[in-house]
Amino acid sequence: MSTIFDTFIAPPCHDEIEILYQDDHLVLINKPTGLLSLSGKNPQNLDSVHYRLVKIFPGCTLIHRLDFGTSGLMVVARNKAINAALCQQFSLRTVSKVYSALLCGHLKDNNGVIDAAITKDPALFPLMSICSIHGKPARSRYRVVERLYHELEDGTLLPLTRVELTPETGRTHQLRIHCQQLGHPILGCDLYGGLLIPGTERTPRLMLHASELHFVHPISDELIKAYNACPF
Q1: Is residue 89's pLDDT more than 80?
Q2: Tell me, what's the pLDDT at 154?
Q3: What are the coiled-coil residue ranges (predicted)?
Q4: Given a cut of 90, is residue 108 above it in pLDDT?
Q5: pLDDT at 127 over 70
Q6: 128 neighbors 99 (Cβ within 8 angstroms)
Q7: How confident is the model at residue 1 (pLDDT cuts 50, 70, 90)?
Q8: pLDDT band at residue 2 under the 50/70/90 scheme
Q9: Is the pTM of this model over 0.90?
């Protein structure tokens, strides 16, 4: 079995975590881009969502994660019982998540489904791979919001498509690799082709934002419908 070496060192993140809602059971936050969800093994990667929040909410735990470059909505449990209840909702796929993204190029269809199994490959770490034989089932839906052009410094027009992405499963890097599979990587995605098109290499961030999160509050049984405006 191959040994995985993680050489990534996160640059300092000076943006604050925005607390959108809190009660005695859970916290709903807006995660900034450029912040790890969990601290890494390397002591230089100590700063993270969990590292910051546990100072404010002792004993809090993460239910799910967002990639380092992804911003947006996360729900955090304040105790073990809430963690277990929310984890069950995620595992049963009763939690609804919607992401906003900018994709490279103009998509032909206004909506569609990407159905492609995803697997880990230690030899390619940290990349994931599409593999129908060894991969775990992964399915994402997309809907085009608008097709636009971004004017570069030299006057060149870069075609982009703003989309809503809805993952039906929750695999690592699912939306990023599925958009690459679609032939339209997420703008700013360093791992899956979002910085390869001329004019994209200086994109300041991964253009992926968790904009909606719907789940049932474990104590009140109220349906929580959280929305957070896309910052790009």
Answers
A1: yes
A2: 87
A3: none
A4: yes
A5: yes
A6: no
A7: very low
A8: very low
A9: yes
- The set of residues, in sequence order, having a beta carbon less than 8 Å from that of 209 and lying 6+ positions away, is 70, 71, 72, 99, 100, 101, 228, 230, 231, 232
**Which residue is associated with the tokens 């060149």?**
156
Per residue, what are the HEC states of the chain? CCCCCCCCCCCCCCCCCEEEEECCCEEEEEECCCCCCCCCCCHHHCCCHHHHHHHHCCCCEECCCCCCCCEEEEEEECCHHHHHHHHHHHHCCCCEEEEEEEEECCCCCCEEEEECCEEECHHHCCCEEECCCCCECCEEEEEEEEEEEEECCCCCEEEEEEEEEEECCCCCCHHHHHHHHHCCCECCCCCCCCCCCCCCCCCCCCCEEEEEEEEECCCCCCEEEEECCCCC
Closest CA to 71 of 124, 123, 29: 29
Q: What torsion do the CA atoms of 157, 175, 134, 130 make, to the nearest 10 degrees?
A: 0
CA 177 to chain centroid, in Å, comes to 12
pLDDT (average), residues 77-88: 98
d(CA 149, CA 161): 8
Strands 139-151 and 157-167: antiparallel
Can you tell me the distance from the alpha carbon of 18 to that of 7, in angstroms, rounded to the nearest whole number?
29
At residue 126, the pLDDT reads 87
Type of residue found at 223:
L
Chain mean pLDDT for the chain? 95
Segment 135-147 shows an average pLDDT of 98
Q: Do 107 and 178 touch, CB atoms closer than 8 A?
A: no
Residue 44: CB atoms within 10 A of its CB come to 9
